[in-house]
C-alpha cells in the first residue's frame, strides 16, 4: 500500500468526482483511477460505488475514509515534527522544485551561493508544482523554485509568501535535423499539415502552458500527440530520435542544439517565455534562507541566447 493512495482517496471523497480529484492531485485521470482500484484491492472491498452518478463512497468506503484521514494526518504531523527536529540541529537549506529545474538551473544557483558563503547543507525535494507548493506552505521546504507563466499562475498567498525572478528562459520548439541540417518537422511552412507532437500531460503546469500557446497559434498547422510525459527529460531522447517535435526548456536542450543533435523547429515567435521564480515565507526562520535569497537577488542566472533555426 502506498501513502499516495490514501491521499487520492481523501481527495476523491471531498468531491465525489474522479476528474476533479485527479486534477487536484495533478495526475492523469486513468492513473488516478488505477490508484483508487489498487487501494480497493489492498483493502479487499469496494470503496467507491461507480454505478451512481456522481460516484459515491460505499458504506465500507465511508468507514475507511475516517481511517485514511487519521493516518494521513498522523503521518503529516510526524513528518513535520521530525523535520523540525532535524532543522533544529545543523542548518539545512530545503528546496522544493521540479525535476527539470533540479537538473538544469538549481546547481548553478547553489554554486553561486557556495562561492559567497562557503559549503552549505542542502536537501532537494522534487515533484509537481502543486505538491511542492503544498510542501512550502506546510513548512516542509524553505523555498520553492518553479517555472512560472502568467497564463497559469501559482496560488500562494501573497500576504504570507514573496518571490524573486531568478532566471528567464523559454520552452523552445525543437526536433531532429534532416540530412541537410533542416528541421524534420518545421513550424514555418505555410502548408496545412499535421505534425507529431511530444507533449506533457494536460493536468500538469507545462501541459497547460503548452495548450495555451498552441491555442493561440495563427497558422494552419495541426498537431497529433504521439507521446506524453510528466516531465521534460522524458521527452528529450525521443525528440532526438526523430519521433516528433517538442517544446522543451531552454537550458535542457542548449547542449543538444550546440552539438547539432537538435535544431530549432521555428522562430522566436514560436517560443514560450517563462520565468523561474523562487518563493519563500516573508519571515523565514533560518539565516541560511536569507543568505540564499540575497545571493539570488543580487546575481540571478544570466539569460541564454539561442538563434532560431540554429
Helix content: 40-55%
CATH topology of the largest domain: D-Maltodextrin-Binding Protein, domain 2
Q: Using the alpha-carbon principal axes, give the shape.
A: flat
User: What is the CATH superfamily label of the largest domain?
Assistant: Periplasmic binding protein-like II
Number of strands: 11
- In round numbers, the mean pLDDT is 87
Number of helices: 11
pLDDT < 50 runs, ≥5 residues: none
Rg over CA atoms: 22 Å
- What proportion of the residues form beta strands (DSSP E)? 15-25%
Structural class by sheet pairing and helices:
alpha/beta
Reading off the top of the CATH hierarchy, the class of the largest domain is best stated as Alpha Beta
Integer tally of domains: 3
- From the N-terminal CA to the C-terminal CA, the straight-line distance is 49 Å
Oligomer: single chain
Specify the biggest β-sheet.
Answer: 7 strands, mixed
How do the helices and strands line up, and which of them pair or pack?
Blueprint: H1 3-15, H2 18-25, H3 29-43, E1 48-49, E2 56-57, H4 59-88, E3 92-97, H5 99-104, H6 106-117, E4 121-126, H7 129-137, E5 143-148, E6 161-175, E7 194-200, H8 205-215, E8 222-229, H9 233-240, E9 246-249, H10 250-259, E10 263-264, E11 272-281, H11 287-298
Parallel strand pairs: 3-4, 3-5, 7-8
Antiparallel strand pairs: 1-2, 5-11, 6-9, 6-10, 6-11
Protein name: DNA-binding transcriptional regulator, LysR family
GO molecular function, one term: transcription cis-regulatory region binding
Family: Belongs to the LysR transcriptional regulatory family.
Amino acid at each position: 500500500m502506498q501513502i499516495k493512495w490514501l491521499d487520492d482517496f481523501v481527495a476523491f471523497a471531498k468531491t465525489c468526482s474522479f476528474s476533479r480529484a485527479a486534477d487536484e492531485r495533478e495526475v492523469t485521470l486513468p492513473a488516478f483511477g488505477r490508484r483508487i482500484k489498487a487501494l480497493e484491492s489492498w483493502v479487499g472491498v469496494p470503496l467507491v460505488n461507480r454505478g451512481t452518478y456522481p460516484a459515491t463512497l460505499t458504506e465500507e468506503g465511508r468507514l475507511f475514509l475516517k481511517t485514511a484521514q487519521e493516518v494521513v494526518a498522523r503521518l503529516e504531523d510526524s513528518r513535520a515534527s521530525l523535520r523540525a527536529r532535524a532543522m533544529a540541529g545543523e542548518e539545512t537549506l530545503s528546496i522544493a522544485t521540479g525535476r527539470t529545474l533540479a537538473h538544469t538551473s538549481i546547481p548553478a544557483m547553489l554554486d553561486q551561493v557556495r562561492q559567497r558563503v562557503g559549503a552549505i547543507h542542502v536537501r532537494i525535494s522534487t515533484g509537481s508544482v502543486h505538491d511542492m507548493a503544498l510542501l512550502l506552505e506546510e513548512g516542509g521546504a524553505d523555498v520553492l523554485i518553479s517555472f512560472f507563466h502568467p497564463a497559469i499562475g501559482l496560488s500562494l498567498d501573497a500576504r504570507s509568501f514573496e518571490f524573486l525572478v531568478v532566471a528567464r528562459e523559454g520552452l523552445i520548439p525543437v526536433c531532429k535535423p534532416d540530412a541537410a541540417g533542416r528541421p524534420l518537422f518545421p513550424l514555418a511552412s505555410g502548408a496545412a499539415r499535421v505534425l507529431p507532437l511530444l507533449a506533457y500531460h494536460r493536468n500538469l503546469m507545462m501541459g497547460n502552458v503548452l495548450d495555451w500557446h498552441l491555442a493561440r497559434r495563427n497558422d494552419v498547422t495541426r498537431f497529433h500527440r504521439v507521446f506524453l510525459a510528466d516531465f521534460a527529460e522524458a521527452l528529450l531522447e525521443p525528440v532526438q530520435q526523430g519521433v516528433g517535435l517538442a517544446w522543451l526548456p531552454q537550458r535542457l536542450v542548449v547542449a543538444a542544439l550546440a552539438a547539432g543533435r537538435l535544431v530549432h523547429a521555428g522562430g522566436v515567435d514560436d517560443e514560450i517565455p517563462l520565468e523561474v521564480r523562487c518563493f519563500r515565507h516573508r519571515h523565514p526562520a533560518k539565516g541560511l534562507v536569507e543568505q540564499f535569497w540575497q545571493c539570488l537577488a543580487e546575481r540571478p542566472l544570466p539569460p541564454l541566447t539561442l538563434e532560431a533555426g540554429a
